[in-house]
Design goal:
By secondary structure, the chain is an alpha/beta fold. It has a domain of 171 residues: NAD(P)-binding Rossmann-like Domain (Rossmann fold, 3-Layer(aba) Sandwich), CATH 3.40.50. Helix content is 42%, strand content 17%. The protein has 13 helices and twelve strands. The strands form three sheets. The chain has a seven-stranded parallel β-sheet, with helices on both faces. Strands 7-9-11 form a three-stranded mixed β-sheet. Strand 4, helix 4 and strand 5 form a beta-alpha-beta unit. The radius of gyration is 19 Å and the shape is globular.
């Protein structure tokens, strides 16, 4: 473990944390990643990129304390219950413990990555309401903190079961309904910049998105990327009737809560160019999209 590291990143073997860690490294900063298994493929990939590994377990506060030694800034993100690894109560516990350890270890700045659905009242969905609870706790502590609320990831559209191999794409929006999204690389870069300028963003809650797209926008972009027609449709009512989880997500989108609340032009003025869906499909998203078209496993983590 590099004792000279400036930033500690949780979730570095997942999408968000990994993007933040790599963005910090690209800026020439020294980064420590909190990992459970240093021998995993993802942990070894982090180490190969010059990221120091701090071995620990999110259920072991002592290991978190050790990892925070000498650290100036912490990026905190936890796995949510839909991933099947933790319960909502465990997510809340981990989020609070990380904040407590940061305070105890005199970390200068804590950035907590929440959700665009958080902080706007109860949703009835544990993995959103858990983040609202963590937000309130973090902001109650005498530590410099920033809460970021990312919109839905573009990468999440390529989870299995959306119909791409059959020439269609099924998602939450109506064809003309807008939903904000962000590329994970942009999310990582923005959070890295917030970490590096703690005083500037102290005490703020920042809604983050990179673009707003409709179902028709997705249809056009996916059709162009595939070189063949990809027809967009919303999840059918018969499926929603059998799946309360998806049904509630669609209700929250229709209510506006999941549609996104970021001021995208202001985000772009503050943090620079944001990736459009078309640009993402031509760049980082291209291999993920091509794998989804072929019904191959694409690496898409739920955090």
């Amino acid at each position: 473990m590099d004792l000279t590291a400036e930033f500690l990143v949780f979730g570095a073997t997942g999408q968000q944390g990994g993007a933040v860690a790599r963005a910090l490294i690209a800026k020439g900063r020294k980064v420590r990643a909190f990992v459970r298994n240093p021998e995993s493929i993802k942990s070894k990939a982090l180490a190969a990129e010059g990221i120091s590994l701090a071995i620990g377990d999110l259920f072991d506060p002592a290991s978190i304390d050790r990892a925070m030694g000498g650290i100036a800034g912490v990026f905190s993100v936890q796995t949510s219950s839909p991933a099947g690894e933790v319960t909502d109560a465990q997510e809340v516990w981990q989020g609070k413990v990380i904040a407590d350890c940061a305070l105890r270890q005199e970390v200068r700045h804590l950035v907590y990555s929440s959700s665009g659905a958080a902080g706007k009242g109860p949703t009835g969905m544990g993995h959103f309401d858990s983040k609202s609870e963590i937000e309130v706790y973090v902001q109650s502590l005498p530590i410099m903190s920033t809460v970021t609320r990312p919109a839905s990831f573009m990468e999440m559209m390529l989870l299995p079961g959306m119909g791409l191999p059959q020439g269609e794409f099924t998602f939450f929006m109506r064809p003309e309904q807008s939903m904000q999204m962000i590329a994970v690389d942009d999310l990582g870069r923005i959070n890295a910049e917030i970490l590096m300028a703690g005083e500037r963003f102290a005490g703020k809650t920042i809604e983050i998105a990179g673009t707003s797209v409709t179902g028709k926008d997705v249809e056009r972009a996916f059709t162009n990327a595939a070189g063949r027609r990809i027809a967009y449709r919303r999840f059918p009512q018969e499926l929603l009737a059998k799946n309360p989880f998806l049904n509630r997500l669609e209700e929250l989108l229709d209510s506006g809560l999941l549609a996104g609340a970021a001021d995208i032009p202001a985000i772009e003025r503050e943090f620079g160019h944001l990736t459009s869906l078309v640009e993402w499909l031509e760049g980082h998203g291209k291999p993920l999209f091509e794998a989804a078209l072929k019904d191959e496993k694409a690496e898409v983590a739920l955090r």
